Amino acid sequence: ARRIWLTRHGQSEYNLTHRIGGNSPLAPAGEVYARCLLEMLINRLPLNEEQKFSVPVSVWTSTLCRTIQTARHLPFTKLRWKALDEIQAGTCDGLTYEEIAQNFPEEFAARQKDKLRYRYPAGESYLDVIQRLEPVIIEMEREKECIIVVGHQAVLRAVLGYFMAKPLESIPTLDVPLHTLLELRPRPDGTMDFEYIHLS
Ligand code: G3H
Predict the structure, then answer these.
(1) How many whole angstroms separate alpha carbon 26 and alpha carbon 157?
(2) Which residues contact 19 (CB under 8 A, 6 or more apart)?
(3) Active site residues
(4) Against a cut of 0.90, is the pTM above it?
């Protein structure tokens, strides 16, 4: 049966130093995750060593280096989507949440108050991200093959929220942990079964 997997990129250098945005490469633990990803997928499909190179899986990444590196060891067709890039933090790009709270306390408070609608100065809101993902979601629904989307926390919250029919307000806090595969299995009635598969 068709599967849709969502995963964040492996831990990046910026994740390690708690910085948002940027375009940093994977940290060592993220590279370990990237190397385990194929086996995690294969374990979800009953395939032998030979079949695993012919299974129809499309790999969709963002245009950022950390998702491309995470998908690097997957022997499948790859597609890069600008629309899958992480939420743009504008003037806050590259900062830690502590630095944002210190340097831009009003921005920090405004985001805490309404994370869904808050738009970073010269950047995006969750609502903006949800809107720009529309063409990706349309293609995901059209696609017949299994898809693995290697994306980012905010973007995957929006994708997960859409497929699981979550209320808009809940999207900015949905749980999308690092080093975890999110598996969606379409049910005949059009809804989805959903499971977290952690790196063991
Ligand atoms: O900036 C990147 C983060 O992955 C988004 O997380 O929306 O919870 O701040 P946040």
Answers:
(1) 21
(2) 94, 95, 96
(3) 8-9, 15, 66, 86, 152
(4) yes
Q: Quick one: CA torsion of 129, 131, 133, 137, rounded to 10 degrees?
A: 140
Q: Which helix (H) or strand (E) holds 84?
A: none
Binding site membership of 154 for ligand 1 (Cβ less than 6 Å): yes
Write out pLDDT tens, residues 81-93: 999 999 999 999 9
Distance between CA atoms of residues 181 and 41, nearest Å? 9
* Shortest-distance atom of ligand 1 to CA 8: 4
Check residue 52 and give its pLDDT: 67
Nearest residue to 83 via CA among 24, 14, 138:
138
In a 3-state reduction of DSSP, which class is residue 144? coil
Report which ligand 1 atom has the smallest distance to the Cα of 97. Answer: 9
Neighbours of 161 (CB within 10 A): 20
E-strand spans in 39-145?
A: 57-61, 77-80
Two structure tokens written together for 25: 């490469």
- Give all strands (DSSP E) within 29-145, no chain letters: 57-61, 77-80
CA 43 to chain centre: 21
Tell me, in angstroms, the distance from the centre of ligand 1 to residue 89's CA.
9
